[in-house]
Structure formats: structure tokens, C-alpha cells
Design a protein that fits this description.
ATP binding; DNA polymerase, domain 1; Holliday junction branch migration complex subunit RuvA; 3 domains; Helicase, Ruva Protein, domain 3; DNA repair; five-stranded mixed barrel; cytoplasm; DNA-binding
Length: about 200
Amino acid sequence: MIAKLSGRLDETGEDWAIVDVQGVGYLVHCSARTLSALGTVGDACTVHTDLQVSENDMRLLGFAESSERDWFRLLTSVQGVGSKVGLAILSALSTGELRDACAAGDAASVARANGVGPKLAGRIVNELKDKAGALPGGSMAGATVMPAGGASADAVSALQNLGFKPAVAAQAVARAQEELGEGAAEGDLIRVALKKAAG
């Protein structure tokens, strides 16, 4: 699967861009935020991608940040949210705003996106509120954003594999890191985080 493209911005449209990678032009569908982050035609750019395949279509979705791609995948896991609606939501809200809205059950904010009615917005925040805490973005009180990669992210993943909800896992690892310090090893983080999560 294509996970990332690095090349030059060749052309843009309302909701798409063509990225030229060594002479091959890739058409990627993007949110308005990603399009503005890519710069102007001729600029060097990198997009994180997600390939969606259906019976009669293959499309490459492009994102300026990997966190935006993570949110897109979460959004499209909700019934009634296809790639077009997912991109519309990410055009209307930053990943931080989306995370805060889901965590607070604020369906009205999600309903600002084109093509999202109150019923669908309610379903999105209800289904994603438990997962919102583990994803980057947002300024939720009491939530800690884990750095991408590294021992802390691996520890969060390990706790999730043991059955803890993403928000619980992220918070427990954050508290473990506070106790052990920045350079803590993954094994130590997991050991202390397990006590925090179970306690």
C-alpha cells in the first residue's frame, strides 16, 4: 500500500492535488486544510496517504499530517461516513477541534462540516468519544498528547493490545512518564502504566 508520497506539487483543484514523484503524477484527494498546507505549484511536498478500494473505484487520499490520516480512518469507520464526508469534516475542523468535540460530545461542532447532519454528527461523537483521547490534536483538560513513535507510543499500543481503551491507555502512560521521567524505557513505562490503569 502507498503510505506516503514525496515530490513536487504539480497541480491542484478544489479537493485534489497531483503530486509528481520522479515523473509519475499521483492524484490525491485532500481536505482544504491539507491543500493549503501543501503550498503552491512547483513546491516540494510530502503527503501521508490512504488508499481506498471499492468495487468500481480506487482513490488515494492525501493528508499533510499523519494525525489527520489517523482521524480520517477513524471517521470513515463510522457508518454513513465515506471518504467525501471524512474530508469535509477535516476541512471544517482541525484535528485538535475534532478531538475536543468528540471528547466533549459536541455534535454541533461536527455538524458544521458540509454534508453532515445533526444525526450523523451525533453518531460520530458517540462512536469516537472513547477513542479521541489516544489520538493527537486537541487541548482536552486532563488529556496528554503522546509524541508520535518512541517508547511512550509503544507503551500506549501495548496497553491497548491488553484491552485498555485508547484514552485510558494514553492517560496511564502519561502518568507513568511523569513518574519515571522523559528517558524511561518502554518496559518500565508499561509496568508502571499498568498499575495506574488498573488502580
